[in-house]
Design goal:
Elements lengths: L2 H18 L2 E2 L5 E2 L12 E13 L5 E12 L4 E10 L8 E17 L2 E16 L2 E20 L4 E11 L14 E13 L5
């Protein structure tokens, strides 16, 4: 490459860099157009409801719940989450006749763009009635842990999938093992909204 070609090449390269250099505002801040908006931010509020199968660990039985949650992020990684589950009607051959649960706890998220790995812990309270003694309703403490994933596809929607382990036990059933531990699967479409914007 000769001297003249080198000069032309350098001039073209300089013009290319100047043309595609980020624009600057009057306050000298750089204006860069993001290829993809990131939705996982502090102040993000999420909620959903879904049909969730729950597999009992102490019995060969499957229960079905309407499961809902409300969650708010207070940092990029941590959020507070409340869950409510209500069990649908069961066959009288099963252990549980009715159950409703409320939990509240913390979630930790590890985001990669708009995809997030998640884990959490939440204590709570459950109302339980068993077919082994239909005259008695128990209110028992419970605890649950979960792992899962989320993918935020838009500023208003996300997809989620979670697996929950719930520890619960009925204490007042005569001559009956009251253990009611379960693995519950929740998946579906969630709704999200950024309610706190950065100033």
């Amino acid at each position: 490459m000769g001297y003249k070609e080198k000069v032309n090449y350098c001039a073209l390269l300089f013009a290319f860099i100047c043309f595609f250099h980020p624009l600057k505002a009057q306050d000298n801040t750089v204006i860069v157009k993001q290829d993809k908006e990131i939705y996982i931010k502090p102040g993000l509020l999420s909620a959903s409801a879904t049909l969730a199968p729950s597999f009992m660990l102490n019995r060969n039985e499957v229960n079905y719940f309407i499961a809902s949650f409300l969650e708010g992020k207070f940092t990029k990684n941590f959020s507070a989450r409340g869950d409510f589950q209500f069990m649908l009607g069961n066959d009288n051959s099963k252990f549980l006749k009715n159950s409703a649960r409320v939990t509240f706890g913390l979630q930790y998220g590890m985001p990669f763009g708009n995809f997030e790995w998640r884990a959490g812990f939440a204590p709570g309270l459950a109302m339980m009635k068993s077919y082994r003694d239909e005259s008695m309703i128990e209110f028992v403490p419970i605890a649950q842990v979960n792992v899962g994933v989320r993918f935020y596809v838009w500023k208003y929607f996300h997809f989620f999938a979670d697996a929950f382990y719930t520890h619960a036990k009925m204490h007042n059933l005569a001559n009956v093992n009251g253990m009611a531990d379960e693995i519950r699967i929740e998946a579906g479409l969630g709704f999200n909204l950024l309610v706190k914007r950065k100033k």
